[in-house]
Amino acid sequence: MPKARTPVSSAKTERLLNLVICLLYTRRPLPKSKIREAVPQYGEATSEDAFNRMFERDKDELRELGIPLVTEQIDTFFDNEEGYRIDGREYALPELSFEPDELAVLGLASRTWAQASLAGPAAQALRKLEAAGVERDDSSVIGLEPRVRTAEPAFARAKDAVLARRPVRFAYRKARDGEVATRHVQPWAIAAWHGRWYLTGFDLDREAPRVFRLGRVEGPIAWAGRPGSYAVPADHDPLAVIRAQATDSRPVTATLRVREGAGHALRRRATATRPDPTALGWDLVELACGDTERMADELAGYAAAVEAVAPAELREAVIRRLQGAVTAMTEGAP
């Protein structure tokens, strides 16, 4: 009879999860020194021996859980240091598909994850790795966090409007120039695509169907009519409409100011790189930007090592995220 597993403390669970994040995040094996710097709980070890004992126990725990932890030589020419990573191909779950109503339920549940106590330390670990120049493996990390996110404040009211078939109005920020305008909409459906939530509906001002990303809704959504006052087309396919709009949209060129020795992942995708004539020790990096909000998420993770120069919408989106981080840290301070 297999031995019953004893409950794991929340502190240990948090430490193990942060370790998994670090080892999934990296494209190359990480030495123990980098792992100790990245995982906040390892920094609390009183000595090198204490850290080594804790790390060895954690490795055994992960392997016992079936997580494919791989040990490799960091340098193929000098076999003097071992590194660790998690094989993302072995770790990843198979592709899952859900009905729209199931996605809505999962989206609501994922808000709890976003606010969980694990989110802060995990994000801190990733920021440390990114700042240290560790090469990121995005294909592995995406399997760890929920693909469906509902952090947008507009989600709840938009969902209610869709269910009630009730017209709404809201301020909406355009993708290209960042201009904010009031929209009057008959909501048809909400759908998640590539980790973002979208509202489809009939734009009463433009007298045509439109797609709105909930992350670009500014302020609250207000009621603008009675429930049940319109009908949703029977053949409406929200995902097809969203995909069509994404295909039609053209990427813009983003200009970034990147500190020398930083932003390696950005530099690899660059279409042009040159020294910044106005700032010694910095480069101007240009790359294609097809999703301003997603790129702003990425750039904010570099903190002071990367600055968004253009377009203005990207710069403002990064500033909003950094200001939000400062506010969260201030409010969370004792």
Report what the structure shows:
The chain contains twelve helices and eleven strands. It has 334 residues and is an alpha+beta fold. It folds into three domains: 10-141, no CATH class; 155-248, SH3 type barrels, CATH 2.30.30; 252-332, no CATH class. The chain has a five-stranded antiparallel sheet with strand order 6-5-4-3-7. Strand 1 (69-73) and strand 2 form a beta hairpin. The longest helix is centred in the last third of the chain and has 21 residues, at 312-332. It is globular.
- Quickly count the domains: 3
Q: What class do helices, strands and sheet pairing give? A: alpha+beta
Sheet with most strands: strand arrangement:
6-5-4-3-7
Q: Mean of the pLDDT scores?
A: 77
The total strand number stands at 11
Terminal-residue CA separation? 48 Å
Q: What low-confidence regions span 5 or more consecutive residues with pLDDT below 50?
A: 1-8, 110-119, 137-149
| Range of strand content | 15-25%
Q: Largest sheet, described in full?
A: 5 strands, antiparallel
Question: How many helical stretches?
Answer: 12
Kindly summarize this structure in a few lines:
With 334 residues, the chain is of the alpha+beta class. The chain folds into three domains: 10-141, no CATH class; 155-248, SH3 type barrels (Roll), CATH 2.30.30; 252-332, no CATH class.
